[in-house]
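sry for the spam today, last one i promise. struct tokens for design, 346 residues
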């Protein structure tokens, strides 16, 4: 099969690899149709690592994907040949202490697509996954939406974790695909005001059209000052989706006493810092989100039910052969990119 392989920092090449085959009775062979380029993929592309997860070249990236069922193992009952499916990129063990208490997202033996040391990614024509990672679309959503259900499920999980109160004022710092996924999930909860920031004006315009109360660019504005002038009491929740120290500092300034800071963005640095006096005196709650947990089906249902529209996030499409161009576009934040989609031949 053909696969797009990361062969060095900033280099992706098409290579012929052995086609995977079903090894266990609950596995499913898939034909990959579409793959989204995620910011974490770009981390590996540009630096070869995220924290302690270091790429050993060559390596296949990618974890946001959708496809079609080609073959099923003898014990598969969840899907059938020909089904279009959304794919949860997590493969869990079911046996560790985390799985037993419903924290599959922090499974001790987790294997995640496109994660070094765990599993090759989905930037290939074929993929084998356990049936539990597959969500049949049944014509309810299309393949584009199925790809976006993966980042959306992270947004759904992040909002769920903050127990967002009715009528809350919130800020979302960074409105790439994850920030916009948080935006969509929070917007469906009927919050009072949503303040959104980003360094790319096209993303801000998209957020404005999608219903943001206010948008601002930190390169040109005093974000904390401008928002607090409109909402002097401060934010109930801030979702930091940029992974940047400046945004973290803004978040602490914006939060009201007793507020919650949800850390979603992945910093490129090993350490971040907070002014302890401020977070202590305000009694700020810090919450981390680790991918999604039991939220993929919820994300699909919200799209299918018309509660959330994610189609506006896709701004660029590339054929499989131009995967490196897609990564360069996203890495450079060129042309107002939000989500680049890589499409595989039928």
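last one done:
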């Amino acid at each position: 099969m053909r696969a797009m392989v990361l062969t060095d920092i900033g280099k992706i090449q098409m290579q012929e690899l052995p086609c995977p085959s079903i090894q266990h009775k609950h596995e499913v062979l898939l034909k990959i149709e579409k793959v989204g380029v995620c910011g974490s993929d770009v981390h590996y592309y540009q630096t070869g690592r995220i924290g302690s997860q270091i790429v050993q070249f060559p390596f296949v990236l990618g974890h946001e994907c959708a496809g079609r069922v080609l073959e099923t193992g003898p014990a598969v009952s969840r899907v059938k040949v020909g089904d279009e499916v959304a794919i949860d990129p997590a493969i869990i063990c079911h046996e560790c202490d985390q799985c037993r208490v419903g924290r599959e997202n922090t499974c001790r033996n987790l294997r995640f697509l496109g994660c070094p040391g765990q599993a090759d990614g989905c930037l290939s024509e074929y993929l084998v996954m356990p049936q539990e990672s597959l969500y049949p679309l049944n014509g309810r959503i299309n393949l584009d939406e199925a790809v976006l259900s993966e980042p959306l499920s992270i947004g759904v999980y992040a909002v769920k974790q903050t127990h967002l109160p009715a009528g809350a004022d919130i800020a979302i710092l960074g409105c790439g695909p994850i920030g916009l996924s948080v935006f969509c999930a929070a917007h469906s909860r009927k919050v009072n005001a949503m303040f959104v920031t980003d360094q790319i004006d096209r993303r801000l315009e998209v957020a404005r059209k999608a219903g943001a109360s206010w948008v601002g660019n930190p390169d040109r504005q005093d974000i904390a000052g401008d928002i607090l002038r409109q909402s002097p009491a401060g934010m109930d929740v801030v979702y930091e989706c940029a992974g940047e120290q400046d945004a973290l500092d803004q978040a602490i300034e914006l939060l009201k006493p007793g507020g919650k800071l949800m850390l979603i963005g992945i910093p490129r640095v090993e350490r971040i810092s907070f002014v302890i006096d401020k977070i202590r005196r305000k009694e700020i709650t810090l919450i981390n989100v680790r991918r999604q947990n039991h939220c993929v089906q919820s994300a699909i249902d919200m799209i299918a039910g018309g509660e959330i529209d994610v189609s506006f996030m896709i701004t660029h499409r590339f054929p499989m052969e131009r995967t490196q161009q897609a990564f360069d576009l996203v890495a450079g934040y060129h042309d107002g990119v939000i989500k680049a989609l890589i499409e595989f031949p039928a």
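Residues 94 and 100 are 7 Å apart (CA to CA). ok im logging off now
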